[in-house]
Design brief:
The complex is a heterodimer. By secondary structure, chain A is mostly helical. Chain A is built from two helices and no strands. Chain A is 88% helix and 0% strand. In chain A, helix 1 runs antiparallel to helix 2. By secondary structure, chain B is mostly helical. In chain B, the strands form three sheets. In chain B, strands 4-3-7 form a three-stranded antiparallel sheet. In chain B, strands 1-2 form a two-stranded antiparallel ribbon.
């Protein structure tokens, strides 16, 4: 149980690092592209949200695993 | 353990008061929200020892499915329907089912008096009620807008009224930006009704979760999984020859690679809807748990430092929750949008016909890398 909490905490931290780097890079790319080509900002925004959603999905699956570990659902 | 954060029975009343306070302390909340986060982590850790003494209400219970819905006038118990070994039972609520002596409660689950477990439990639950409410509201809103369009308002003239304008903005946004952007133009109109009703229902269900007594239907994996299943089935049935070709017989790769690629592609078929339902579920669940946990800090502080500190610090927590609530309204609409967008992307990907210039490049690259042909 105690180890489950530890695992959940460490896991949540690693998820935050990974998702943060990923979404940060998307944001960097999108902002740079919009600055270079402001007229394409609509398309870029759509692609940005879409890609961010994919990263979010992976991060949330990790987050659910952490919640399950913290609650001790796995026994 | 965050499921034991003390939240008093009066949580519903607090949320009502919250809406009033939202107007009063909206601005300080933004300023104050900068520092309470560091305090909150400490207080949760400290409260671990003290919780046995008090009566904790579990946070997970607030987001779980129940056999009743909460209303301003108390709990409304919902009918239960059981299917046991080919026999159908219907009761007005759980108490009546237990009072009829045909069913008994054992280890938290309801079983038939002779010990047979329930084969199929098709009871109406709180989340189901809110799914229905979301559907009904989406239907009423759309029928109302349709009757106005039929009378010519919005077609021959500009749409009148706030609601009609909101409807037109949402509809045009979903149709032009989301559906036409990702589904080939000539087939887009076939999928517009499905995807737009998906968006409206999800938006209503997500927004219902923000009401003080209501349950968030989308914070239930079964609800989101059902919607993702709809997307999955529609995607498979609208798949073209190119789509299936890319799964079972990827063009332009040597045969040994196909043995690796085909299982990966088949796996990819199922991970897409899985991620789709988990994303929505986790987002709505996390938002709800966060709000309950932060409001629960008031009771932790009262327990630790006395009533004065609890009341005093509640200004911080309530204003922080007010800010989070505003964020949740945005997230509710954003998640409905993302679900619709990804559904459109998946369906659009399945509808795509052979794309010449892109695939010729792939073929060329592979031919060059192929050692036999090179």
């Amino acid at each position: 149980m105690e180890l489950g909490l530890l695992a959940a905490g460490i896991g949540a931290g690693i998820i935050a690092i990974g998702a943060g780097i990923g979404i940060g890079m998307i944001g960097k790319g999108a902002v740079e592209s919009i600055a270079r080509q402001p007229e394409a900002s609509g398309d870029i925004r759509g692609a940005m949200i879409l890609t961010a959603a994919f990263i979010e999905g992976v991060a949330l699956i990790g987050a659910i695993t952490c919640i399950l570990l913290a609650l001790g659902v796995g026994g | 353990m965050f499921q034991h954060v003390f939240v008093s029975q009066s949580l519903s009343q607090i949320k009502v008061a919250l809406f009033t306070l939202l107007l009063l302390c909206g601005l300080p909340g933004v300023v104050l929200s900068a520092f309470p986060t560091s305090v909150s982590t400490v207080s949760v850790a400290d409260s671990e020892d003290a919780q046995e003494s008090s009566s904790p209400i579990d946070v997970m219970g607030k987001v779980a499915d129940h056999d009743y819905i909460e209303s301003p006038f108390g709990k409304v118990y919902l009918p239960r329907f059981f299917w046991v070994d080919g026999q159908f039972y219907a009761f007005a609520n759980t108490k009546k089912a237990l009072a009829s002596n045909e069913f008994v409660e054992k280890e938290g689950a309801i079983i038939r008096a002779d010990g047979t477990p329930i084969t199929l439990d098709v009871s109406i639950t709180s989340h189901l009620v809110y799914v229905w409410l979301g559907l009904i509201f989406a239907l009423i809103f759309s029928l109302w807008a349709a009757s106005r369009y039929r009378r010519g308002i919005g077609r021959t003239s500009a749409p009148k009224g706030v609601l009609h304008n909101i409807y037109e903005i949402l509809y045009l946004f979903i149709r032009d930006e989301v559906i036409k952007g990702y589904i080939p133009k000539e087939k887009a109109s076939r999928y517009t009704p499905l995807l737009f009703s998906m968006f409206m229902t999800l938006a209503f269900m997500n927004l219902f979760g923000l009401l003080p007594w209501a349950a968030t239907a989308t914070a239930d994996l079964t609800v989101t999984a059902t919607l993702a299943l709809v997307t999955f089935v529609v995607t498979q049935f609208s798949g073209t020859k190119t789509y299936w070709g890319h799964i079972f017989n990827f063009p332009g790769v040597p045969l040994p690679v196909k043995f690796i690629l085909t299982p990966v592609e088949i796996l990819g078929l199922f991970t897409k809807p899985l991620a789709l339902c988990f994303r929505l579920f986790a987002n709505m669940l996390a938002g709800k748990i966060m709000i309950i946990s932060i409001l629960g800090l008031i009771f932790i502080f009262t327990e630790l430092f006395g009533v004065a500190v609890g009341v005093g610090s509640s200004v911080i927590w309530v204003s922080l929750t007010a800010v989070l609530y505003a964020l949740k309204v945005f997230v509710a609409l954003l998640q409905a949008y993302i679900f619709t967008l990804l559904s459109a992307v998946f369906i659009g990907g399945a509808l795509e016909e052979h794309h010449h210039e892109e695939h010729d490049d792939v073929h060329d690259d592979v031919t060059v890398m192929d050692p036999i042909k090179a």
